[in-house]
Amino acid sequence: MERWSAFRDAVLQGDAVSLIFDILEEARDRITPPPGHDGRDGVFDCTSEGSAVDAYEFVAALKKSVREGVDHEVDLLETRDSPRGPVHLIRFANWIQGLSAADREVLRELLHFTAEGSLFLVLTLLDNLVDLTAERVRFELWAIAENGGRGQINDPDGDMLCDIFNGLG
After folding, report:
1. Are the beta carbons of 158 and 55 closer than 8 angstroms?
2. pLDDT tens per residue, the chain (169 residues)?
3. Among 7, 10, 19, 40, which has the minimal tally of Cβ within 10 Å of its Cβ?
4. What is the distance between the alpha carbons of residues 120 and 132, in angstroms, rounded to a whole number?
5. CB 161 within 8 Å of CB 27
6. What is the Cα–Cα distance from 132 to 2, expressed in whole angstroms?
7. Which residues contact 156 (CB under 8 A, 6 or more apart)?
8. Residue 12, CA distances (Å) to 6, 15, 120, 133, 159 in order
9. What is the per-residue burial (b if ≥16 Cβ within 10 Å, else e) of 116-151?
10. Are strands 142-144 and 150-152 parallel, antiparallel or unpaired?
11. What is the C-alpha to C-alpha distance for residues 2 and 140, in angstroms, rounded to an integer?
């Protein structure tokens, strides 16, 4: 619990990035997805045995979605040729198109790093490790399948979402 107090203090002071990556490095091998969940497919399987999506599928799908979202936006900006549209998008496209291929790849990696770090922070909130407001609240996240199967994604007796995230490749 002491580590999470330090983490909360670092978040509030705006100095959480280095602490996040210290935690990522320590925990990367600690959580192993259960059989059948390699953490790479990101596909929700809500039909097996009538159950809703589990925490591993949820976190893998979020991580995959964040990475694909970054790639999609960078691809659009790299190929954008219209002088019309929101000023900030035109400015971003012009800047990205002026970069070398190697610098574009570094930018893409930096954006993945930033997006995944933001996702990690959201998962710590859903794990109830960090308070979002001064008033202490507890989050419960449930997956409900069409067939009625239910499962709590952030089960307090299960693996923490941020630890699952750290265990994914």
Report:
1. yes
2. 454 455 556 555 555 555 555 554 444 444 444 444 444 444 344 334 445 678 999 999 999 999 999 999 999 999 988 778 889 999 999 999 999 999 999 999 999 999 999 999 999 999 999 888 888 888 999 988 888 888 899 999 999 999 999 998 7
3. 40
4. 14
5. no
6. 18
7. 128
8. 10, 8, 15, 11, 25
9. beebbbebbbbbbbbeeeeeeeeeeeebebeeebeb
10. antiparallel
11. 23
CA atoms of 103 and 107, how far apart (whole Å): 6
Contact 119, 162 (CB under 8 A): no
* In the chain, domain spans: 2-167
Rounded to the nearest 5 percent, the helix, strand and coil shares of the chain are: 55, 5, 40
CB 141 within 8 A of CB 154: yes
| pTM beyond 0.90, yes or no | no
